[in-house]
Amino acid sequence: MAKPKKVLKIILGVVIGVLFSQLFANTTNFCTPHFALKTEKLDDADFVAGKSTPRSKNLLFVGVMTADIYLDTRAKAVWETWGKEVPGKLLIFASENSTSKHVPLVSLLGTDDSYPPQKKSFTMLKYIHDNFIDQYEWFLRADDDVYLRSDKIEELLRAVDSRKALFIGQTGRGTKTERGHLSLDSDENFCMGGPGMIMSRETLKRMAPHIEKCIVNLYTTHEDVEIGRCVRKYAGVSCTWNYEMQVIFYHNKSGLNAYTGNLKTKEVHKAITLHPVKQPDYMYNLHKYIHGLKVQSSLQKSIWLHRDIASSMQELGYSITSLDNATLGKDLPLFPIKKGAERYLGDTSILGKPISINKYQPRNVSNVLEWELISKNLYSHKDLNPRKRIGSSLKEGLEDVTREVMELINLYSKQRGRIIEYRDLLYGYYRWNPIHGADLILDLLLIYKKYRGHKMNVQVRRHAYIQQTFTGVFIREVTDDPEPKPNQEEDNKNLFNKVINQISNNLPPLLSFNRDNQDQAVINFLMPLSGRYSTFTRFLTMYEDVCIKNWEATRLFVILYRSKEDPSDYEATLRLINETNSRVYGSLTSAYRNYNKITVIETSATEQFSRASALQKAVNNLNSSDLMLFMDVDIVFDQSFLYRVRKNTIIKKRVYFPILYSLYSPYLLDIGLKTYDYINFSYFTANQTDGNRGFWRQFGFGIASMYKKDYNVLGGFNVNITGWGTEDVAFFNNIVKNHTYKVIRSVDPGLIHIFHAVKCDPKELDNEQMGMCLGTKGSTLGSLDTLQRLYEKYYKLFI
């Protein structure tokens, strides 16, 4: 009986730990600071700055020094972000005549905002000493452009004896040009003011009575140098020489660009203070990111606790799938709060599973998760192009994983007198699915640095096995007012909109209206055409249904070439366009007549087809502010595609290169080409998840939208290219190299390429064009699965 009792105690301890962690994680402190102008001695109750748990409320006092012009910008951002999370108290200090309604302000008598702020800084320290010296263990002098990690500062200060005279911060000795001019001896230093300087109570007690002497005996114009000198002289201590302080009190040397880009860096993750954050927006953004890290850390701790519960309950005979209904005794359920409730602690059957690459067990061959190889490229059998560049999302995920792995490896590096640095990912394997999660096997190149005893630097390779478990998607609806008061005006408005929409939906397509179409940019379709009469008939029918009948603001320019195979095709196409114009032109209002008339740009009888030259002819007919869409006759689209063209194309900023869905050959699917003659967009989109019907054409760049002005800035198409292909690829590469424009490259479910046979004539194409043509021809025939089945069926005929 001893063993079950011991296990029961362990389980109770773990469950209590989970409950308390959940309780604290869901606790929100609300406080209303007393904002007032004070110049005399303050009582602690005058300000409530950063209310925290009883254990932390007397740990740290933070004095933030600012100027009057920054009170409602930088200082406000400090107060509204990390200022309210300080494990103690925070006050903002400014010059004598400063006032603010937004921050807990102390205006210092006899000071102004002149620079350097030496007098202001010393006066602030004197004020803090006179009012708060016996109430807090530690005192931090900070600027208004620093970000403080309250959780990490508390962890650091709890590990240090505050009864000793200590001066903590990033050690400074001055720049190279200042050395020898700061009146510092070889063994003297100062704590740099930007990242913040921390004094223990004993240090401030020793220094404060002599502040007036320090003010009148200044050797330099540097405020932090003079504070360091004063601390050294009267408290008898220097700033800590510890090299790690360069990292945890971090000063970014990028100036105004600091913390404006990617925040997923080891410096941001490891630092206690981050400096300088010059713009309030960046302070809020940084605060949001840090809170995300805290949430991530809490979730990881929750998973560890769930695993402890699962392993402990296993000792009592409970399986991991039955823990929701497990009990620890009579009327004592293991999880009293059930799934769906607000404080539900999570599903242990998912979160409590032990880590293992073999955790997922496929039931049959089709359920096996295939591994993809990660090297300098991504190698995958799932794609028609087995080798491709590593996508930005996977690259970012790998960076996150390697950074977190290195943090775990170096968690106890101080005690062991070594540090391990990440150098490179040699190769890795990757697999995932939405239910199982993601698995990674990484071969890492590391540098082992030992700095105690026998010092050494050695390259090592280590395998890292990583597993990310997905917990599923859970939705909980929360309303601020569970019983909203009736709003007659809002109800009438909703009823009116409902009636209008019903009337509009029941009108014939030609007469229906869409208020969202008003004042939209006109999309100019530019389509080269040579032959292909029957295909153009299908396209024109679709264009009329999608654009003309729905009053879309569009224009179609057809650049028409004569076909060698069928000379009569040219005249037939002209007749079809004229008939369409005469039929629909009279039914349109005058506002739309300017849009929807189809324009033909004719070419000479001897002119050879060139897509680049054809598009350039159409471009020359437009104004610089016109929105252009390069189109092919084999495309089927819907209205949602037009919406994305307008939204994703911004003049002087963005160009849109959608990734279309390309259908495979119908002959290989035994459905016949007639299936594609009938335009049923819902039929095509319903099969976009079927890997045998088609594929997302990531290597196609022919369909694109941009403004003419941007087209000219980007250099346009190379009109010297004739025949099939390469002009769009070359143009796309030029845009990517430009760096001024953002390329929107995304799959578009409203854009489908209908299969057609590709002709690759070696007499008309150069080697590069021929290679691309054959590659496209082969990739559009069918999926690998379809081609494999055909090979297995017919290969004996060729033996």
TrEMBL record:
InterPro entries listed in its UniProt record: Chond_GalNAc (IPR008428), CS_glycosyltransferase (IPR051227), Nucleotide-diphossugar_trans (IPR029044)
Keyword hit for Transmembrane: yes
Source superkingdom: Eukaryota
CC terms in the record's Gene Ontology section: Golgi cisterna membrane
Intracellular or extracellular location(s): Golgi apparatus, Golgi stack membrane
Molecular function GO labels: glucuronosyl-N-acetylgalactosaminyl-proteoglycan 4-beta-N-acetylgalactosaminyltransferase activity
Topology in membrane: Single-pass type II membrane protein
Keyword flag tRNA-binding: no
Signal peptide residues on this chain, from the entry's feature table: none
Keyword list, A-Z: Glycoprotein, Golgi apparatus, Membrane, Signal-anchor, Transferase, Transmembrane, Transmembrane helix
UniProt xrefs under PANTHER family: CHONDROITIN SYNTHASE, HEXOSYLTRANSFERASE
Stated name of the protein: Hexosyltransferase
Species: Ceutorhynchus assimilis
